[in-house]
Write a structure and sequence with these properties.
The complex is a heterotrimer of chains A (368), B (82) and C (394).
Chain A (H helix, E strand, L loop, with lengths): L10 H7 L15 H5 L4 E8 L2 E6 L4 E7 L4 E3 H14 L3 E4 L5 E5 L2 H13 L15 E2 L13 H11 L1 H5 L9 E4 L13 E6 L5 E2 L1 H7 L2 H6 L6 E4 L4 E4 L9 H5 L3 E2 L7 E6 L14 E8 L6 H17 L6 H8 L1 H8 L14 H4 L9
Parallel strand pairs in A: 7-8, 8-9
Antiparallel strand pairs in A: 1-2, 2-3, 3-6, 5-6, 9-14, 10-13, 11-12, 14-15
Helix pairs in contact in A: 5-10
Chain B lengths: L2 H15 L7 H12 L3 H13 L4 E5 L2 E5 L3 H6 L5
Antiparallel strand pairs in B: 1-2
Helix pairs in contact in B: 1-2, 1-3, 2-3
Chain C lengths: L7 H5 L8 H9 L3 H16 L19 E2 L17 E4 L6 E3 H14 E7 L6 E6 L4 H10 L15 E2 L13 H11 L1 H5 L9 E4 L8 H4 L2 E7 L3 E3 L1 H9 L4 H4 L9 E3 L4 E3 L9 H5 L4 E3 L3 E7 L13 E7 L6 H17 L6 H8 L1 H8 L21 H5 L1
Parallel strand pairs in C: 6-7, 7-8
Antiparallel strand pairs in C: 1-2, 2-5, 4-5, 8-13, 9-12, 10-11, 13-14
Helix pairs in contact in C: 2-3, 4-5
Classes of the chains: A alpha+beta (368), B alpha+beta (82), C alpha+beta (394).
Chain lengths: 368, 82, 394
């Protein structure tokens, strides 16, 4: 064994110390005392501003929460900065949300103002609570994923620079949940977001037959195709793809890497709208296609940002209070959505995959 | 059947599939259980013991997990061979 | 320290007010050669509009088949610091609460063995450590596990369960979401770490139908808290909302999906028998409205992202189930659900897709759940249906 880097456990020490199947530590030890004391006994809460809320318990205890944005990719250095602030104002406790926000909590109202001041002074962005845009759920992108067809972090940064005020201050008719997925695997809730970006391929993959022969299981590869476009190519001991059946999902690439789906010059993103998770008023909804394709244009994707802004502005102007993006569109009708936003309706908008029967119009009543 | 003998059978089963089929844990339990008449749970226990000491290993590829015979590189990294 | 990279494209993403991931990579690059080469590699991706990562390789800790995702750069000679850049998934504590002491310790260990880059948290819920080498995996695992932390799930396995904040700090929660999540995580340890399923299986727990953890869209088994009693009304608080400018008829009564509410300018009333428990009124008038009576869960099954045969939202399977710690009934139900899927699914087939292929009936029969109108929006339209021998015995 070569010399170990400084401070590393040796192989023997590792073997000695390791434990398996212990699971995560019980959350109870990480709860701030006021949370632990009033667990399950909260009366109500109130939003004080875009980034602050107070929860009141039946005991009369209160806990103030200040929420700040994170870029999801965090260096330990930034985490240490957050922890120092949590030590100073929050008795050494900190929490994260399911949308990658950071929450600083204190039972002491007097600490809220100085906490917010220090957060602002250190450059943190406070907000994300209420009928606004909260942090964006997104995927790894070029930063860390082999299958990425765009960069999620860069898109998110450019989007949130544009929508910054909707996080820190300005209200919308209802909350608007954004998401970005760097391919159709969608390791994020893109398929049920108010407004989301998903990267798509548009060309039939190329096949490195020699490598397929050596690396891939042919039946698994054939089975991976949702449109049955892949069949055996016995002569080459490989597979072939029926071009007209391929919808470029890239699942074959996942199970068999020599089938290359990437075309940097032809890859880009689609924009989907109107999805929702909660059951309030109307049921959870999938996001639906608004714009089938915009070219990748890093580092700031200006065409994508412009398109998102157009949709958000049209929604903000037209929706009623408490109406989510998808509810607004259902009320006015999709034909009106396209005319109001000026988005072109194309063949790609008409489902010819699993939802065709549900989505073709079977009524003579529609808006002109 | 003695555990050691069962483990030899398991190893042979995995070796026979090498380069042909990526075996899922379940394929091994089913196959070896059919070959030996041992309960699947017994096979599972024996196989898990092999995985714990690096005689077999979990692998991942093609979007799915499988069980295979470790490479020398893996064994060296785990300090199981010099 | 390694090479200094020019990053004109990424530098553009340090402009503007939103926190920048580029700044984070640069911060880590001040002490990590891996993060430094990551910066160079991502800049190249921005220039060429493509990623430079290879498919996951075969890495992990001894005995486990999950928790570590192998990642190798496609350009190891140009960027040696990211030749290996594996991900370690640390199973988060349910609800994402930490003491600063614990999180600082997690970071200190990571600074020693990895790039210093993290996702807090990843999409499934794990605390994700981004970028380390193969030889660091065993010591990393020993360092964390000896301090009480374990790895999360990956591959064809139970994935790390996740939940909303639940009863810890939310008056709407009908259940102890964090308690349930933690309990299920502990009970499925073997299934998380040793991938033996046809494909991934996710559990998410939400305290109410607001579903702040996206259970209904992102988990094979979606557990959502609900209640059976009335909504209690504090009329004084209703008055207060009206006094502060809320248009109760427009914002509450007319937005009720079942039209079970009325307001005469003084008093709000609810025909509780007709309430579908959607949460709209409760969330908008949290000081005035409160759920009462029996609390429990709805279990919904099947949601997933588009791969392979299209997106699915979870379907109601168990309309109401009363649960109590230590949640044996829930564990047994989930185990039965998984057993049916495991016995019947093809490789890489999620449970939602399997139910589509096999039909809901065999699934419901296998897990012992009777048919209920709660499971459908509407009954079947075509006159094609199956009869089994059992149906003739009745």
């Amino acid at each position: 064994m070569a010399d170990l880097p400084k401070g590393w456990l040796t192989a023997e020490e590792s073997k000695e110390k390791r434990q398996t199947d212990i699971g995560p530590p019980h959350f109870e030890q990480f709860l701030p005392p006021v949370i632990k004391k009033n667990y399950g006994d909260w009366k109500h809460h109130e939003r004080l501003d875009a980034g602050t809320m107070v929860h009141e318990a039946n005991s009369g205890d209160k806990v103030f929460t200040v929420r700040v944005a994170s870029p999801r990719i965090l260096s330990t250095i930034t985490i240490y900065e957050m922890l120092d602030i949590a030590d100073k104002y929050c008795d050494g406790y900190i929490r994260f949300t399911t949308r990658n926000n950071v929450e600083f909590m204190t039972p002491d109202e007097g600490k809220v103002k100085p906490l917010k001041k220090e957060l602002k002074d250190k450059g943190f962005t406070i907000g994300g609570i209420g009928p606004r845009i909260s942090n964006v759920v997104h995927t790894q992108g070029w930063v860390h994923c082999h299958g990425a067809c765009t960069d999620a972090s860069g898109l998110v940064k450019a989007m949130m620079d544009e929508f910054y005020e909707y996080f820190t201050e300005k209200e919308l008719p209802a909350k608007v949940r954004l998401a970005v997925a760097c391919c159709v695997n969608m390791c994020g809730a893109v398929h049920c977001s108010d407004l989301a970006v998903v990267a798509v391929h548009r060309k039939v993959p190329s096949i490195n037959h020699e490598a397929v022969k050596n690396i891939c299981e042919i039946p698994t590869t054939i089975g991976s195709c949702p449109t049955r476009a892949i069949s055996p190519d016995p002569a080459k001991k490989s597979v072939k793809i029926k071009d007209e059946k391929c919808m470029y999902c890239g699942n074959c690439f996942t199970v068999c890497p020599p089938i290359d789906i990437h075309r940097p010059d032809e890859d880009g993103v689609a924009i989907v709208v109107g999805g929702k998770i909660g059951s309030a008023r109307t049921g959870p909804k999938f996001s639906k296609l608004a714009i089938p394709f915009i070219y990748n244009n890093p580092p700031r994707w200006p065409e994508v940002i412009e398109a998102l802004k157009n949709i958000l502005d049209t929604y903000a102007k037209g929706a009623r209070k408490h109406e989510r993006m998808g509810e607004w569109i259902e009320r006015i009708g999709w034909e009106r959505f396209f005319s109001l936003t000026g988005i072109e309706f194309t063949y790609q908008h008409i489902d010819d995959f699993t939802f065709m029967r549900d989505t073709l119009r079977t009524s003579a009543a529609f808006k002109m | 059947m003695e555990t050691a003998e069962l483990q030899d059978k398991i190893f042979a089963f995995v070796e026979a599939a090498k380069g042909k089929k990526k075996l899922k844990e379940k394929d091994i339990l089913k196959g070896v259980s059919a070959d030996t008449g041992e309960e699947k749970d017994t096979v599972k226990k024996a196989m898990r013991a092999m995985i714990d000491v690096g005689k077999l290993m979990y692998s991942y590829g093609g979007g799915a997990s499988s069980v295979e015979i470790p490479s020398e590189e893996y064994l060296r990294e785990k300090g199981l061979i010099k | 320290m390694g090479k200094k990279y020019d990053t004109p494209l990424l530098d553009e993403l340090e402009k503007g007010p939103w926190p920048s991931f580029v700044t984070e990579i640069k911060k880590s690059a001040t002490h990590s050669n891996m993060a430094n080469d990551e910066l160079g590699l991502v800049e190249k991706s921005y220039r060429d509009k493509r990623g430079y990562w290879k498919h996951g390789g075969i890495v992990g800790v001894l005995g486990y088949g999950g928790g570590v995702i192998g990642r190798y750069s496609a350009l190891p000679d140009e960027f040696p610091g990211v030749a290996h850049f594996h991900t370690v998934r640390i199973n988060q504590p349910s609800g994402f609460f930490y003491t600063t002491k614990a999180l600082r310790e997690i970071c200190n260990i990571w600074d020693k063995y990895g790039s210093g880059l993290t996702n807090v948290h990843g999409s499934t819920g794990d605390l994700v450590l981004l970028g380390t080498t193969t030889e660091a995996l065993e010591p990393i695992f020993a360092e964390y596990s000896s301090r009480g932390w374990d790895l999360g799930g990956s591959g064809s396995a139970m994935r790390t369960p996740s939940c909303c904040i639940g009863a810890a700090r939310c008056e709407w929660s009908n259940i102890d979401a964090m308690g349930i999540c933690n309990e299920m995580t502990q009970r499925f340890q073997d299934e998380m770490h040793r991938p033996a399923y046809p494909y991934k299986f996710k559990i998410k727990v939400a305290g109410c139908a607001c579903d702040c953890v996206a259970a209904i869209a992102r988990s094979d088994c979606s557990i959502i808290g609900t209640w059976k009693g009335d909504i209690a009304i504090d009329q004084a608080a209703v008055k207060d909302y009206a006094g502060k400018g809320m248009d109760i008829n427009a914002e509450i009564v007319e937005m009720c999906p079942t039209s079970c509410m009325s307001y005469d300018g003084k008093e709000l009333s609810i025909d509780n028998g007709e309430c579908s428990r959607c949460m709209h009124c409760i969330t908008k008038m949290t000081k005035a409205l409160k759920t009462t009576g029996e609390k429990g869960i709805t279990i919904l099954i099947g949601s997933k992202a588009p791969i392979v045969v299209g997106s699915l939202l979870s379907w109601v399977v168990v309309p109401f189930m009363k649960i109590e710690p230590p949640y044996d009934d829930l564990y047994e139900m989930i185990s039965k659900i998984i057993e049916w899927w495991d016995d019947n699914a093809k490789p890489r087939e999620r449970i939602g897709e399997l139910i589509e292929v096999k039909g809901m009936r065999p699934f419901l029969e296998a897990i012992g759940v009777p048919p209920s109108p709660a499971q459908v929006f509407e009954p079947r339209k075509d006159p094609f249906f199956f009869w089994s021998d059992d149906d003739f015995k009745k």
